Amino acid sequence: MAMVFKKTNMLTDTPMHYCPGCTHGIIHRLVAECIEELGMADKSIGVAPVGCAVFAYRYFNCDMQQAAHGRAPAVATGIKRSLPDRLVFTYQGDGDLASIGAAEINHACARAEKFTTVFINNAIFGMTGGQMAPTTLVGQKTTTSPDGRDPEHCGYPIRVSEMLATHEGAYYIARVSVHDNKNIINAKKAIKKAFEYQLAGKGFTLVEVLSTCSTNWGMSPVESLDWLVENMIPQYPLGTFKDKGAK
């Protein structure tokens, strides 16, 4: 029988702990496939965050380093400067990156650190119980905004990609989604391009991926995909916000 699909060797066989409908597994696979296709299986180092992806080191079949909450960019900076020939990436959620880690990611970008960040934006704190995140939408209900996010009290959502694209050190900044097959393909292309730029010795690269959180959104997996399209994409439009290598 002909093999139609084979799991990348860059993922272990460990069952993932993510909730049904969560798209972290899809994004893990895309990152892993890109590493394998680039021939960097033995020369990649990932930095795992605090958040839903805290156990990423169990799933990626490469060297992984755990970082304190929000500090993955600092850890990645040290690794990449010490081992410049390695493919170094951080995998961070919006609570980890855009809240406690906001200063870390901004300064790493401004310094043009030559690693890649895969930024997962599901507009909520997932692991810790569904609290409001810096990316939570206006009116979105969370455990700490039960009546919906009120901008008069809590401010407005932060558009991370647009913000980081203003830094001179940013080489490639893009926002993608994984809500359907077409966008999954586009997401993989963006992640691979970010990795290629890193391997070419360019500046800081980041790919923001819009993701779902069915459990904390209180929706079915299908409903959460529809909610992402109808609500998140208008707030966080897809596209490339900076590409210094574009011809």
Q: Note the run of SSEs as H and E.
A: HEHEHEHHEHHEHEHHE
CATH fold description:
Rossmann fold
Low-confidence stretches: none
Q: Determine the fraction of residues in helical runs and give it as a percent range.
A: 25-40%
Write out the CATH superfamily name. Answer: Thiamin diphosphate (ThDP)-binding fold, Pyr/PP domains
Strand content: 15-25%
SS summary, helix count = 10
User: What is the number of E strands?
Assistant: 7
Largest sheet: 7 strands, mixed
**Count of all domains:** 1
Task: Give me some keywords for this one.
7-stranded mixed sheet; alpha/beta; 17% strand; Rossmann fold; globular; 37% helix
Describe the protein in words.
With 247 residues, the protein is an alpha/beta fold. The protein has a single domain, classed as Thiamin diphosphate (ThDP)-binding fold, Pyr/PP domains (Rossmann fold, 3-Layer(aba) Sandwich), CATH 3.40.50.970. It is built from ten helices and seven strands. The protein has helices at 24-37, 56-59, 72-82, 94-100, 102-110, 151-154, 160-164, 181-199, 214-217, 221-235; strands at 44-48, 63-66, 87-93, 116-121, 170-177, 204-210, 239-243. It has a seven-stranded mixed beta sheet, sandwiched between helices. Helix 1 packs across helix 8 (181-199) and helix 4 packs across helix 5. It is globular and about 50 Å long.
